[in-house]
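Exercise (ungraded).
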Amino acid sequence: MNRRHPIDEIFRHGLGSRSEETPMYLWDNIERQRSAARRGLWLRRFRTGIAILTVAVAGALLWSLWPAEASLLGFFPVPQEESRTLKEPGITRPAFGLPSDRPASQNKNIQESYPPDRQRGRISDATLPPATTSDGSSDLPGPAPHRPDQLALMGTQPSGADAAVVQNQIAPKAAPAFRLKRLPGRHPGLVDDRVPDLQLFLHDPKCARFNRVYWRTSLELAVSPDWNVRTLTARDSEYEGYLRARDESETTTLGFSAAARFSAVSNFGLALRSGLHYAQINERFEYRNENEERIIITNIYGSDGQITGTDTIVETGARHKVTHNRYQLIDIPLIIGYERQFKKVGLSINGGALLNLLFRQKGDFLSPYSLEPVNFSTENDHAYPAFRDRLSVSWYGSLGLTYRLNGGVSLLLEPHLRINPHSFTRNNYPLDQRYLTGGIFVGLRKAI
Amino acid sequence: MTERDLVRGCIRESRECQQEVFRRYAGKMLAVCMRYARHRMEAEDILQDAFIKVFDHIESFGFKGSFEGWIRRIVINTALKNYSRKRFQNEQIGLEPGYDPSLEPTAYAMLHEEELLKLIARLPDGYRIVFNLYAIEGYSHKEIADMLGIQESTSRSQLVKARKMLQAEIAKLQKIAV
């Protein structure tokens, strides 16, 4: 093109170095907008910090509920009653022993004191053999004192040793730690070597305690074919014609998605799931124009090498263009659900949000300006700026079905629905473009 | 204050330096914006957006080339983005006027700056942008095609059409004057 075209020269000379008087309120507006932007930046950083802190605290709370040991039992049960005779100084109680190890003179008494229906694991005064003195004398003290319930049955008032037992039972004291150990004394053979020094009850023995909450964790991998329903709406009535043109030139085809999730299910059914979701929406764009016009302009040069004119050639012909468009989304799912296990089959109902990390597009569509194909791909710097850089939160709902296989692996089937409540396109684009996606995740769940 | 001092002051977010930059260059840049916008309000919006970008990205200047040229490129890019946002609207191009060979180049020289500005403002957006970039800023058709995301042939054809329209408008002014 001749840069010395007279029109070009006049406008360049007339307007090239022109200056306008600039009102100072423009400077005030610039200052105000920059200050607001800086405040907004700090506010966003503050909110991000709060969000990270909240997630960290929630993670710490979840970690604190995690059982430290694989065992869920606190202590092994066997409550012990306090024995009065153990408290008396100098008095020791021999360990249980085989009758054959004891002198015959004592066996009879001992055998008499062993009722045939002695409770397993319980040592009561009524069943214990008589105590012996620490010097090993053969003189045995009197029979063991009676319990208050026995006295009640007998209809007698407690006296002497009985009274002391009753008094102890009225004001019970903390049961001492019970330990089976080798005892010296008269009947060393009475020590039962079969009973090891277990040291079970270092503190007060308690009944079995089960932790209130425990979590079963697993990793899930699944893929899904997706059916996408697109909704196009004109933001202004003057773009209805453009909307119809886009509807006619594009069709939605089968998409797909994939998920890698960490799942934690509590013993009372609460399920928490998060991880990464990838979704791809596929469409087909077709453009056909039997009378496409293409303008070719060439310069005509004079003998001195200067451009003396232009030659404009208009070509017409048929144009047929087909493009496979795709929209790719990577999201972080935050899903909460309720899950129950019935033998090998598990059922769950889930719902939550998908936070968009990445949104990319590739393909062509009709330009609202010329109704001719233009490219809107993310990687194209000259692409038509129709789509957002990132999407807003979308909503997710599903029903889950698992079938337990071997080795902690379960088969997973999860029909799901995803709703994008906001448009994929920018506000200044003529059309609002949204999607409703349905699919069925098929995959595996592995307990970890 | 030298240009280098001004730039360094702006990098330090010195309010005085930023205001001095605005005072020195806003007038010329507003004139540039007036050529790309349809009216003064739109030109002022473009100018504000452009200077915000100048101050936000001043670290990237790097003291390579003219500071005024760097600011001008930002202003032009901002004007083009503004045009991209608004080019969804259908334009009433109307019938293309024919070229009148009887008009001498000297006829254009009598036109005042304000009249030239008005003539440019009457052009459709696409023609105006291409004419500004080619005839006044000095970009080639290839560069214009890259900047606007159009074909080079489209840039050429729009320039031709812009010139034809300007010639027709000038011819009207001449007839009215006579």
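Further reading is listed at the end of the chapter. For now, observe: The two ends of chain B are 51 Å apart (CA to CA). DSSP finds nine helices and no strands in chain B.
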